[in-house]
Design a protein that fits this description.
Elements lengths: L16 E6 L3 H13 L4 E7 L3 H8 L8 E3 L2 H6 L5 E4 L6 H10 L3 E4 L7 H12 L5 E3 L7 H11 L4 E10 L2 H5 L14 H23 L5 H11 L1 H13 L4 E6 L6 E7 L4 E8 L5 E9 L2 E7 L10 E9 L6 E8 L6 H14 L8 H18 L6
Parallel strand pairs: 1-2, 1-4, 2-3, 4-5, 5-6, 7-10
Antiparallel strand pairs: 7-11, 8-9, 9-10, 11-12, 12-13, 13-14
Amino acid sequence: MATRTPTANSDQPRKILRVGIIGLGEIAQVNHISLLNNLSSYFQTTYLCDASLQALAHCSRKVAGGPPHTTTNPQELISSPDVDVILLCNANAYHHSHAILALEANKYVLCEKPLALNYRDIDAIISAESNSQGRVFVGYQRRYAEAFLDAVKEVGGMEQIQYARVRDIIGPNSNFVSQSGTFSQKFTDFRKEDTEEMMSLDEEMMRYALEHDYGVEVTKESMDMARLLASLGSHDLSAMRELLGMPTSVLGASLQAGSPIWSVLFQYPSFPVTYESGINNVPIFDAHIEIYSQEKIVRVNYDTPYVKGLPVTMTIRERIDNGEREGDGYQERTVRKTYEDPYTLEFLEFYRVVVGREEPKTGAKDARIDVDLWKMILRAGYPCTSD
């Protein structure tokens, strides 16, 4: 179980980690830059990198504590003596190559999920770690929420689990981003060759995964579904693994062509788990994990992390003994220990791991297991070309 720095408000002196951010899109603008500003007792943003000069100019103005260095060259940022740790929130196609560059520079890197799209690339990262003083910390922020950590303990103390449900059906991200108060912008001054390179790399990685790792027919539908599992799906599946372990099989998967919502039925040794996810146009964030046993039901409710102050809660529903009369009683408790959002808790844990030179809970080897799950789901949902 991971522990973290107790509070973001402590005034004890500490080492300030200098951060270089690669990729200045939505997540950097909506969350990471302002979060690092707020955690100024722990971090200072000293370098920004993006292919867009407009993004560099816009985001530089948002950095507190003095103007950062800027560059369009990731290697320049990674090798800079003014950078202690790297934050990767650029296109998925570059995560593995930039993570390896950071490891070669013996630096810790926090990489937004997915870390990689296939075994080949993630194994290259794991190999690079073996020769590095740095480590990769994957941004599965939901697994650092206080309520989630409490739920792990509650589920661990349960009697036989009967059933679990994992759900993440949300409205378009733009609904939440537009109300986040961060006034993020999109930029169009990308060179044509840079865009083409990114798209080509992404397609090659996805094709390689489907052909070589999963044995699934390569179609537009299967590639789109694989991308969804690696993006939206990775949050839920990663949290499911920590709470329940790995399923033994997939009994069925509904991955309909053109459908914005999908569902999967996992089999565990003694209970089933339903997983349902997708995107529609209703502006709500319906994300939760619920675990049932004979005497107790534990549920973790998530809200959008793009609007600060919305709590993650744990609800426990259980039978109680009335004691004085026949029949069973019932109680329901909703626990909110903190309003600190999962991203804040994740970055505090990242700080602790870096300063202590420790292995992260959500490291590269942990992220590799998600590829196992994507493989199981896709093979259940699409025709396999090989066994």
